[in-house]
Amino acid sequence: MKKTLLIIGSIAVFIAALIWSLPAPIDDDLNQIGNGKKSVVFIYDLNRVVSNQQTIEINNAKAELGDTVNYLVSRTGYPETDKFMQKYKAEIAELLFFDEKGELFKRKFALVNATDLTIILASVD
């Protein structure tokens, strides 16, 4: 009985640690671009490892810059993402940076670390 409880407890701790390590969700409402805040849009593909790594870096930058920037994700496989990618000639695992008016000012491929994200977002005024 004690072994069973120990195993169940260990599994619960493992699951909790796994959930805690997952990146926080990032908004996918692209209508926020040009709303008076700078925006960064990440073209997310579930099948690429770099996508999860990039969302972790975005969340780290989000912790530093807070709500002064729109952090957005556009997931592949959706018509809205296809239109967005076509409009900006974007590719999978690419980050697009927009100023407060919604004008594209920079693009980079993942993986961009949190420090570089904050530098890029702070560079355009």
Plain-language structure description:
- The chain has 125 residues and is an alpha+beta fold.
- Helices cover 46% and strands 20% of the residues.
- β1 (38-44), α2 and β2 form a beta-alpha-beta unit.
- α2 (49-65) packs across α4.
- The longest helix has 20 residues, at 2-21.
- The N and C termini lie far apart (63 Å).
Number of strands: 4
Largest beta sheet: strand ordering: 2-1-3-4
Broad shape: elongated
Rounded to the nearest angstrom, the radius of gyration is 18 Å
Unreliable runs, pLDDT <50, ≥5 residues? none
Structural class: alpha+beta
What is the string of helix and strand elements? HEHEHEEH
The helix fraction, in percent, is 40-55%
Instruction: Tell me about the largest β-sheet.
Output: 4 strands, mixed
Strand residue content: 15-25%
Instruction: Compute the average pLDDT.
Output: 88
Our measurement of the CA-to-CA distance between the termini, rounded to an integer number of angstroms, reads 63 Å
DSSP summary: helix tally: 4
